């Protein structure tokens, strides 16, 4: 309002968030644009208006597709608010490592993932149904919502799918799934879009995804912007030649003491324990010192860094999830 941000909380995505699908990494599933009716060889751009996110799904422990779907659905339970139903659209980014877990667990298509995810979201949403009815209809809603909640819980026991007549997300097709991200890491994400409810509700389909075929990228490298060095700004359509970085000379010797620093992320200690075991086996006289950061989200304290510099010839830090 008045030339400033008109929402309570703005977001960088009001400028843009651009995500590419790693089609080659997800060979078992159709690409997103193929699911939207385009040919595999087409260049397609899809625009979605999202209301929040990306919401990270941080996963350290899942080993099966069932566990992973449950974890993602429980994170999605809070989209908008835990008692908001019938969200029309939601962008879902599945990481390559999570994709592998899902495929190994028998999820052979995005359609199957959408169905399973929708059903699990409904199951988790069942306890919130009474709250919705109370807010909508007062004391009458308390009894109606209580009855609906009981039906939803009964369905959970029988079918594991909650109350499909009042789902968290409108339909399984509400999920717009792509595979993207780095090759390692048990992280996925989602972004709920604007709009919830069904017509004629005024809040229904406030935004819908739109996909359009575009021209292929130009073959020739684009000219650099005048006056701006290439190392400060790169045209995303250009090809960039990576510079070779030479490795430092290796002497074949390890000088001690060696510091092993756990940055306090899950799994880091397991890795460092194994490294210490190998070091002591291969270099019996080598001194190994252990350090642990207070938290992975902040730099190591000044006193810890001074201690490492004073006492260690080399340091190995464990970054693990």
From TrEMBL:
UGSC-like domain mapped to chain residues: 233-321
Name by which UniProt lists this protein: UGSC-like domain-containing protein
């Amino acid at each position: 309002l008045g030339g400033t941000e008109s929402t309570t909380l703005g977001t960088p995505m009001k400028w843009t968030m651009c995500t590419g699908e790693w089609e080659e990494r997800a060979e078992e599933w159709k690409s997103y644009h193929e699911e939207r009716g385009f040919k595999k060889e087409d260049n397609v751009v899809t625009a979605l208006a999202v209301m929040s996110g990306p919401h990270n799904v941080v996963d350290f422990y899942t080993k099966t597709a069932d566990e992973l779907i449950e974890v993602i659905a429980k994170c999605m339970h809070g989209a908008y608010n835990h008692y908001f139903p019938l969200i029309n659209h939601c962008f879902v980014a599945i990481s390559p490592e999570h994709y592998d877990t899902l495929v190994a667990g028998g999820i052979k298509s995005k359609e199957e993932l959408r169905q399973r995810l929708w059903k699990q979201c409904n199951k988790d949403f069942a306890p919130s149904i009474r709250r919705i009815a109370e807010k909508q209809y007062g004391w009458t809603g308390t009894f109606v919502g209580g009855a609906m909640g009981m039906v939803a819980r009964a369905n959970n026991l029988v079918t594991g799918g909650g109350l499909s007549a009042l789902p968290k997300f409108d339909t399984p097709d509400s999920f717009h799934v792509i595979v993207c991200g780095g090759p390692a890491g048990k992280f996925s994400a989602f972004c709920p879009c604007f709009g919830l409810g069904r017509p004629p509700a005024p809040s229904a389909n406030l935004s819908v995804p739109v996909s359009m075929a575009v021209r292929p990228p130009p073959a020739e490298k684009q000219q650099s912007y005048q006056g701006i060095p290439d190392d400060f700004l790169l045209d995303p359509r250009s090809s960039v030649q990576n510079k070779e970085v030479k490795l430092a000379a290796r002497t074949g010797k390890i000088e001690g003491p060696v510091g092993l620093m756990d940055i306090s992320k899950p799994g880091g200690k397991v890795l460092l324990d194994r490294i210490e075991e190998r070091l002591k086996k291969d270099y019996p006289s080598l001194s190994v010192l252990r350090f642990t950061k207070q938290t992975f989200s902040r730099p190591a304290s000044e006193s810890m860094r001074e201690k490492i510099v004073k006492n260690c010839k080399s340091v190995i830090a464990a970054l693990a999830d």
